[in-house]
Specification:
Elements lengths: L43 H6 L7 H10 L2 E6 L5 H11 L7 E6 L2 H15 L7 E5 L2 E3 L6 E5 H10 L6 E6 L7 H16 L4 E6 L4 H8 L6 E6 L6 E5 L7 H15 L4 E5 L3 H17 L5 E6 L5 H4 L11 E6 L2 H4 L6 E6 L2 E8 L4 E8 L2 H9 L7 E5 L3 H5 L15 H9 L16 H13 L11 H6 L6 H13 L2 H10 L13 H9 L7 H14 L4 H6 L4 H22 L10 H12 L3 E5 L4 E4 L5 E4 L13 E9 L3 E9 L1 H7 L9 H4 L1
Length: 680
């Protein structure tokens, strides 16, 4: 079996190139669409009145009448997102303007708008509608409008005082994303100018006092209201000693619960997609070996298609125990009925900006006390629950109170560019909810200047106005724009889309050797990004076959997601270029030069004496990640990289071979004579 004719570039040399032989069959059954609602058997009016937030209806309206800002906290599932906008509409707040509800995710916008439309007895787009990227469902009759944080910022750009709105609700504020932080800062300025505008900051859990202080001053007042949900006693068990492998320990704990504890679903918190999939695989092996047909094991993470996420809400027979293995998406974003037991690994994945390498680094770090409490709270929704923390009490006591906001740990190149596009000239003095470190801000400005997105005075250039339209990593956006010049837009759209996904290969541990052989069929000498291109090209040539994906150990759902992302990026690129005919190149040099034009600030050279790479900027030691195509072949002298993973050393991935002369040609000011790139 071979990968197909998609492999158009130079193959690396491997000693072991046997074909893979897999006989197992993969189910292709479609999952029916379901929407979870534990009160669905009741009339709509009864459903609304049984939600915890209903008891606070009068209080919410009173506080909003007397304070300009209301901070609303409460459990997931209390009704904040659907009911509060309706209370405001029913009380007449929508007669002078729209009631806007921002959400971090487009799917939430659409589903919440549908739910409110159903409850009001109207068609979607009448009283309740939504606006998300590439989709607008509102009309002149719309009074309650759900929109993403990105769309809200776009509207502020077009109408700096948001004159069409009477009330704005910022939902899911606990996530403290970059966009949320920017929205808070912009709205604080708008509220000073518009005394008639009201703001509700809503969240399952957040530092409410901090937000109150942020919005309280001589000209503005804020108040806090906590919506109490229905909770039951929770018993928390701690590990006596730290666990060496929290994925295996999670699977072992689930097995022990299943064998010794009464009925009730189990919710497991792990750090990422791979860990979730690995744990599910271990549990399925256990279920098969022990003939446990009463275990229904389900993964849950953000990259899963919506229909697969909805599986966790499907009812099961009383004899079947559900085990949901999830990332921190299950902390606050969803409510799963029937969970009695929670297993908490105590860790989370966090993207942090590494000033040493100038790249985002994915870290596995201890969670916060706030997150640990949220995870535990999932067990006490329908009755007394039990929580198994895979860490000891001393470790819990040492946890930080809250997770670090994105603004204080992220690469801020895109954020700075966005603020510049919004007319914020002095980015240091912008009123951030979570002020970022000045070094990261300065670094962002330097990178944007090196990429000609900002001029010497710090003003946004014409190139910068184009880059910001892609709503993705600035360096990846630069690659897409440069693809027009290098004549390889079709290939770069695929590569950038593929880079957005964490897991392209499915990795069951018992087939690691077979998977490596499958991966080798796609690997090429030019590097990881062209290897990713080969995978997607082969996928398309095989008519996007599920069976082909299964045979090649490729994640079918991930590649379908890539196709969706690629189409969105394609629309933006066509809009910017004005040309619907995408260029294409079969010359690997064109592709590698184009990649280098975006990643020239992330360049490294091979240091023969130490047998490792060193970053050109800073001369820091870097090692090749085991998943990279370059891990098992002769290293090129110069490379650029798009990903860094920090363990006890820095591992680089998404590597592309480049030539020294390309780097100097692409960025002559950045690479001046005497720097490492010239000396080596």
């Amino acid at each position: 079996m071979h990968a197909g004719s998609g492999n158009r570039f130079k193959k690396p040399r491997f000693d072991d190139s046997e074909d893979v032989d897999v006989n197992e069959q993969q189910s292709t059954a479609e999952v029916p669409k379901v929407v979870f609602n534990p009160l669905s058997s009741y009339p709509l009016k009864t459903q609304r009145e049984r939600l915890p937030v209903f008891q606070h209806r009068r209080e919410i309206l009173y506080l909003l009448e007397n304070f300009q800002v209301l901070i609303l906290t409460g459990e997931t599932g209390s009704g904040k997102s659907t009911q509060v906008p309706q209370y405001l509409h029913e009380a007449g707040w929508s007669t002078t303007g729209l009631i806007g509800v921002s959400q971090p995710r487009r799917v939430a916008c659409i589903n919440l708008a549908k739910r409110v439309a159903e409850e009001t007895g109207q068609l979607l787009g009448q009283v309740a509608g939504y606006t998300v990227r590439f989709d607008n469902c509102v009309s002149k009759q719309t009074r309650i409008k759900y929109l993403t944080e990105g769309i809200l910022i776009n509207e502020i750009q077009a109408d700096p005082l948001l004159t069409n709105y009477s009330v704005l609700i910022l939902d899911e504020a606990h996530e403290m994303s970059l966009l949320m932080d920017i929205c808070l800062g912009l709205l604080k300025k708008i509220l000073r100018r518009r005394k008639d505008l009201k703001l509700i900051v809503s969240s399952a859990t957040l530092d409410a006092d901090k937000i109150k202080r942020y919005f309280t001053n001589k000209s503005m007042s804020a108040e806090i209201l906590n919506v109490q949900g229905r909770t039951y006693p929770i018993t928390i068990f701690y590990a006596k000693d730290p666990v060496a492998d929290y994925v295996k320990a999670s699977a072992d704990t689930v097995q022990k619960i299943h064998e010794t504890q009464p009925a009730g679903h189990i919710l497991v918190f792990l750090t990422g997609e791979k860990e979730v999939d690995d744990c599910c695989s271990m549990l399925r092996d256990y279920a098969v070996s022990q003939k446990q047909n009463k275990l229904f094991i389900l993964p849950l993470y953000a990259a899963l298609p919506a229909k697969d996420q909805m599986k966790v809400f499907e009812p099961t027979s009383p004899q079947v125990r559900k085990v949901i293995v999830a990332t921190n998406i299950a902390e606050t974003s969803v409510t799963i009925n029937g969970v009695v037991y929670v297993v908490d690994c105590g860790y989370m994945k966090m993207t942090c900006y590494n000033l040493v390498t100038g790249t985002d680094t994915l870290l596995v770090t201890p969670t916060s006390k706030c997150s640990a409490m949220q995870r535990a709270g999932r067990a006490g929704r329908i009755g007394p629950g039990k929580v198994y923390r895979l860490y000891n009490q001393e470790a819990y006591a040492s946890l930080r109170e809250f997770n670090i906001p994105e603004m204080q740990r992220s690469n801020l190149t895109w954020t700075v560019l966005l603020l510049k596009s919004l007319g914020v000239d002095n980015i240091v003095r912008f009123d951030y909810m979570s002020p970022p470190p000045s070094k990261i801000l300065v670094n962002a400005v330097e990178i944007l200047h090196a990429h000609e997105a900002l001029d010497r005075e710090g003003k946004m250039t014409q190139l910068g106005t184009k880059l910001i339209q892609f709503k993705c990593d600035v360096l990846q956006a630069k690659i897409l724009l440069k693809s027009i010049e290098f004549g390889c837009s079709s290939e770069m759209l695929t590569i950038v889309a593929m880079m957005q996904l964490e897991n392209i290969f499915a990795v069951p541990k018992q087939k690691t050797r077979d998977i490596k052989k499958a991966q080798y069929q796609f690997f090429v000498e030019e590097g990881d990004l062209l290897s990713l291109l080969n995978i997607y090209t082969s996928f398309v040539e095989k008519q996007k076959s599920k069976q082909w994906c299964y045979d090649m150990f490729v994640n079918y759902k991930s590649l379908c997601k890539v196709a969706e992302i690629r189409n969105r990026l394609k629309e933006i690129l066509i809009k910017i270029s004005g040309d619907e005919t995408l260029s294409s190149s079969h010359d690997p040099d064109d592709l590698c030069r184009c990649i280098a034009s975006g990643y020239f600030t992330n360049a490294a050279y091979w240091h023969a004496a130490s047998a490792q790479y060193r970053s050109i900027c800073g001369d820091h030691p870097l090692e090749v990640h085991p998943d990279s195509a370059f891990f098992s072949q002769r290293p090129p002298k110069f490379v650029v990289f798009g990903k860094v993973i920090a363990t006890h050393k820095l591992l680089i991935n998404h590597i592309t071979a480049v030539k020294q002369s390309w780097l100097i040609d692409i960025a002559p000011e950045f690479y001046q004579m005497g720097t490492a790139v010239c000396e080596n």
